[in-house]
Every structure is written in C-alpha cells, then in structure tokens.
Design goal:
Structural class: alpha+beta
Bound molecules: zinc ion
Number of helices: 3
Strand content: 15-25%
Oligomer: single chain
Largest sheet: 3 strands, antiparallel
C-alpha cells in the first residue's frame, strides 16, 4: 500500500502556502479550550506544563485541549463555579452566552453544532463539560476550576465517578 497516492501536498514554495498558513492561524486563534477559555490565554512552559490566565477568572487548566471554534471569544471569560459540572462549568457559561447572543460556534470533534461525548463518542446524547482534579481523577471539589476538563454524556460521567 502506498500512502502517497493522490495529489501532492501543498509545497511551502507554492503560491497558496502563505494563504493556507494565514487561514490556519486565524482558525486556531478562534479555538476555545475545554476549560472554557480561548487558546490565546494558554501558555506552555518548557517542561510541558500549561497554564491558563483569563482576565476575569482564575483557571487551573494544565492541559491545552481545544474543543470549540467560536466567532466571538469575548463570551468565553467565565469562571467554573460550584460543582464544575454542566451549567456550573465555564465552557457551558460561555457556550450558552454565545448561543443566546446568536454568535456562531462549531465543535471541533464533530464539525457541527452538536459536540460528542469524549468517551463513548455519542453525538446523540447531551454532553456536559466536567472539571476534573488531575490528582484524584474525579470531579473537582466545589468552587475549584479543574486541572483537566472533559466533555461527557451523563452515563459516561457516572461511570467515571463510580469506577475511578
Ligand atoms: Zn484550558
Ligand atoms: Zn482556562
Ligand atoms: Zn458517553
């Protein structure tokens, strides 16, 4: 089997190279991390640990994990509060605020308006952003924003809660 069948890839020497680069740059700059904040607020240090510093919220995100492309990033400034699950999650707050304002968003995993569960990949079930404590691998204590953040259906979430 030859993986290099088909048309050749874009060469850096070609006329469209800069165009492709610019397009990708703009796209990536509109990505939102699963913590609920734009990728632009994230920095990764030389030891590979990331940090997220939005203007209006504290965030414990240590893993850059783009999940959403949004046309208005100003909507993604919320803090994760209380349980850090569903509507208490910063990503939910930004998402619903954007929806309410009618700004366009695309889930990166599906390329559509409905995201999918990161565990079972279901696109039919409703998904919930969940803030997770990296140390305990469980949902965070109330009021803490979570080291890693995952999108899960309720069934997969309950499994995580029970199994880990
Ligand atoms: Zn993040
Ligand atoms: Zn964040
Ligand atoms: Zn699931």
């Amino acid at each position: 089997m030859n993986d290099f069948d088909g048309p050749p890839p874009v060469s850096p020497m070609s006329a469209e190279a800069v165009e492709v680069f610019e397009k990708n740059k703009v796209r990536r700059s509109r990505y939102v991390c699963s913590c609920g904040h734009p990728l632009g607020y994230h920095k990764t240090s030389s030891d590979g640990i990331s940090s997220c510093t939005p203007f209006k919220a504290n965030c414990s995100c240590v893993e850059v994990h783009p999940v959403l492309e949004a046309s208005d990033l100003r909507k993604f400034q919320y803090a994760t509060s209380e349980s850090g699950i569903g509507m208490d999650h910063a990503l939910s707050k930004g998402y619903v605020a954007s929806k309410s304002a009618g700004t366009s968003m695309t889930w990166l995993a599906t390329g559509g308006e409905r995201g999918c569960c990161e565990k079972c990949k279901s696109e039919e079930k409703d998904i919930y952003p969940i803030a997770i404590d990296a140390r305990t691998k469980r949902p965070v204590n109330p009021g803490f924003s979570g080291h890693v953040n995952r999108l899960m259906c309720w069934d997969c979430f309950r499994e995580l809660w029970v199994d880990v």
